[in-house]
Amino acid sequence: MLELASLGKEFPRRGGPVKALEGVDLSVPDGQFVCVVGASGSGKSTLLSLVAGLARPTTGEVRLDGVPVTGPGPDRGLVFQQGAVYPWRTVERNVAFGLELLPLPRAERERRVAWYLAETGLTALRHALPKQLSGGQRQRVAIARALACEPEVLLLDEPFGALDVQTKEDMQLLIRRVWQDTGTTVLMVTHDVEEAVFLGQRVVVLASDPGRVAADLPVNLPAERELSVKRLPDFLAMRAQVEDLVRTYHRRHQEKQPV
Question: Domain ABC transporter: where (predicted)?
């Protein structure tokens, strides 16, 4: 289980520290898909950086299976908005990169690469270089590389934000299928409320100034989801509820700002 306990983060600024997060408590059971939304400045990406171990909290801690997170590790895979792929490596060698750092037999590395290439629809492109790929294909490479190490938790930082609508929806279907096939725990931050409701089993709304959990909502939609789910009354009602919450806390944040 992934646990965030009284998590807080301050950044030094002239005139005094700025609180990005304060008192964040969140538990994500094994195998669950949780999406975090909030207005700009609510600390979404900061939260993910703390879970990834790329930054240290000012207060509280992140725990994975009861063990405090003190830095990056293979038990957490991370995918950013701009899929960071190595331009000099083929698709196949990009996916294999993390595995080269693990004490695995060559046969096991090759098996994993082949499986995750197939799972993400990249087998036919295994010898291609990133410059030959579309934006969506590069994100598939980044996702396959993160998953090939078979982390306990996959962390997604607005991974589809730079894609066009059609490609974005294709990737949403892909990540749900991969999640169901692998059973990996997923924690995703996104500014897209519709995406959060479509993908997540829970949607966590962050308030701003400082970032904190304002709502933690279960998504009561079918486990098997096609894009047509987005037209269902229950989906539309859930999306509206989350949008209203994000808008309300963003407005409160603006009202607190000096004129």
Answer: 2-233
